[in-house]
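Researcher: Here's the sequence for the chain we discussed earlier.
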Amino acid sequence: MQKRLTGLAIAAAAACLAQNAAAEIRELIDEADLAALAGEISGEAAKRNLDTVSTFHRTRASSEFRAAAEHIRGKLKDYGFSDARILEFPADGRTMFGTQKSRPAWDVNFAELWQLRRGEDGEWVRGRKLGDWAAMPLTLAQDSLSGAAIAGLVDIGAGTSASDYDGKDIAGQLVLTSSQPGAVADLAVGEHGAAGIISYAPNQRTAWWKQDERLVRWGHLSSFPKTPAFAFMISLGEARRLQQRLAGGETLRFDARVDAFQDRKGRYAIVSASIPGADKSLRKQEIVFSCHLDHPRPGANDNASGCVAILEAARTAKKLIDEGRIARPKRTLRFLWPAEIEGTLMYLAARPKDAARIKANIHMDMVGGNPETKAVFRISGGPESLPHFISDLGHEVGRFVNAQSEIHASGGDTAFALTAREGGREALLAMMEGISLGSDHQIFNEGSWRIPGIYLHDWPDRYIHTNYDLPANIDPTKLKRSAFIGLATALFLADMDVGDGPALLAMLRRNALARAHDLEESRAHADAQTAAVLGPVHWMREHAKIDSVADFAALDAAEIAGAHEFIDQLAAITGSDGGQNLAKGGAVYVRNPAIKGPMRAFGYAYLDDKLGERASELALAKFSTEDLNGRSIGGSMFAYEALNLVDGVRSVDDIHAWLTATLAPIPREAVAEYLAALAEIDVMRLVE
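Model: Thanks. This is the structure I predict for it:
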């Protein structure tokens, strides 16, 4: 009966709120401005840029990354960005940028892998070419170093344990493995003397990961190798054929040659451009668009798509402002094209004054996959540890595009179909979600900077990190819609002031009401210990969203108080205390401001470097569970959020409660051990 009464009370609150709630995004953003964006953004123009960017094998700090960066800068110059420039950072293998060690640049002159056959005279001659850097760079694992071998092939299976090598003559041979090259190099090459590696390892796992045998997947060796090695990548189908021949007793021989090197004099490049704000004071604040320009050729969806979507957003904003079709916003818009995660970390850590100007981040990574990719488009609102109204705003714009594109796809008439002539007509069907790790947004969101934002991305994508991530699989309509969502959100934030307060608070109240229903569902399915913390943490997050409005506008105190009162009333209806009675116990830590960034970045892990083998033995590192919806959650998610929650006020018990309430139940001891380990390496310090 209590649950029924709660449901009725929430329904009654919904009816009362409906009269004052914003109907949709047009209550926040002028429809004429939305129409200007919809009319100007060109999915075809974005696709033309993608066709060029995807011709480059864009590994960090390489010559081809630089060529792609030069293309982006050149287009920005063409679009009228006089400040378009390339920022440089050392790729020397030594310099630390926060918790990211700069990796040496990696370049390749030549690499080929030939399967040999018996000639008429019985000699081994070249037969089929399985690897070719010039034709398909993905066939050479990243960070391979020079080497050559004419050798046989030995299947070592996973190759990650000593038993995988029992009874096998490895010295001087090439080894075939189902593992990533970096996972077997020390054992296979370093200890057993293999000449090189051939891998068919998956890089990303989805429902399709073993169903398409054609795919050659992205392989990696260490950027800081204990054992110098080279590795070629082949498809699953190719590997199965080789395994069948080996199992039949056939001798297989290959000719492998690699001319590749790491350059400690290389330079990372980050393209930057801006549209200065109109307000003399507020123009010092920036709304930053980001993507990542690196990834192997073709890398069309990952991530040429995000790069060209923000390039098109930049072109559109500049043109509309210059022509007076939309007003110049008060705050500055900035556009960045770094290398994934490490480039963003470099920018924020090495340029603290620039980092301090950033008010919000709009990140795009994989935003163009057509139906062939099986992609699900998502708008992530950021980590649970950083509750902010911006996530609600981004979702509001996304729901608008969902609704309008569905009307169009169903044959209805709308001015916001947001289709490209060369693109699809499907409804967008974007999913609205919370935290999703795996790209540069998590650096902006990280507790060192706590920059809120939204993250637009496709997941899953069955062609991610493979030779089939092709421009042919990119939809210009989706590029247009992604640019629209990002630019509409950014322009609102860049121009937001006190006049936007009533509509914004109405949106937050309405969304809080919807989330109250979600809370009731979660509590109904949770165990008693979890249910006890779900309500308090939930309502603390709702209050924090209200408070976050002050980051952009000092609203009337009475308006803010009224919004908080509404949250308290909802909490009371659901039988919760509004988040005031979390257990207070355990150590309290504060971040060391001299060490900025996450514990794991790209190609380098600060935690592993400082703790050594102990890092992998931490209970949190090995922890894996499922949330209330049955989705798998690994230790990396808990580790990221645990560090994010350290603020000099929350205790270990508080942080444990937050993790349990927002992710899934986790042993308190695992959280306490992890935080103590971070204090041991001075990432944070105990508050006495």
